[in-house]
Amino acid sequence: MISAAGVRRSFGGVEVLRGVDLVVAPGEFVTLSGPSGSGKTALLSILCGFDFPDAGAVEPGPAAWSACAVLPQSLGLATELTLEENVALPLRLRGLATDPVARVLAELGIGDLGGRYPAQVSFGQQQRAALARAVVARPSALLADEPTAHLDAASAEAAIGVLRRVADDGAAVLIATHHDAVHAAADRVLELAGGRISSGLRRTTT
Ligand SMILES: Nc1ncnc2c1ncn2[C@@H]1O[C@H](COP(=O)(O)OP(=O)(O)OP(=O)(O)O)[C@@H](O)[C@H]1O
């Protein structure tokens, strides 16, 4: 579960988040839209524990952070590790087998790049490696900031398929994005405007 209740956050005297309430249930794939500067990154940073609210409460709290995967805009790949080693890291840290690494890299179209270092691949390829690392250990919550920002349409489709599967496997998934294709794949689209969540349209399936 991912949730925020009455979350407020100011920067330099400007209140960017003015009482944000949201809930993403296990198994839900929810996207967060909103104009540039509306506070999407600020909200995700608080939800994943990188930052703290001035007021309000969030889940996951510290006790559940280990089961929460985060894909920041800056990616955070370890530059001294190959893509394969980066993706294997969350599995190794938990003492799990690294068999899924090759499958996830292949699914994202970078199966032949596992032996390269981040500096030896494009930013879009790094972005897919960071997504692979975020999902490989089957997190129970996933927070991602613009995970398809540097991807072409086909690569974005593959990324969306992976995100969808993480939710179908039972994770609560919240994605900040400007990308219509990601919103179209979501169960619900939340709009952050004026410091609050102003809508939560449920996608209708026919
Ligand atoms: N650490 C900080 N210090 C000062 N101001 C900040 C800080 N973090 C965010 N802000 C301000 O808060 C506002 C929201 O920023 P944020 O990055 O959350 O927007 P966003 O909705 O993610 O934008 P984008 O769609 O462009 O990524 C902006 O006006 C930004 O300048």
Automatic annotation (TrEMBL):
GO molecular function terms attached to this record: ATP binding; ATP hydrolysis activity; transmembrane transporter activity
InterPro entries given in the database record: AAA+_ATPase, ABC_transporter-like_ATP-bd, ABC_transporter-like_CS, ABC_transpr_LolD-like, P-loop_NTPase
Cellular component aspect of the GO annotation: plasma membrane
Keywords attached to this entry: ATP-binding, Nucleotide-binding
Top-level taxonomic group: Bacteria
SMART domains in the record: AAA (SM00382)
Residue ranges annotated for the ABC transporter domain, each copy included: 2-206
Protein name: ABC transporter ATP-binding protein
Organism taxonomic ancestry: Bacteria, Bacillati, Actinomycetota, Actinomycetes, Pseudonocardiales
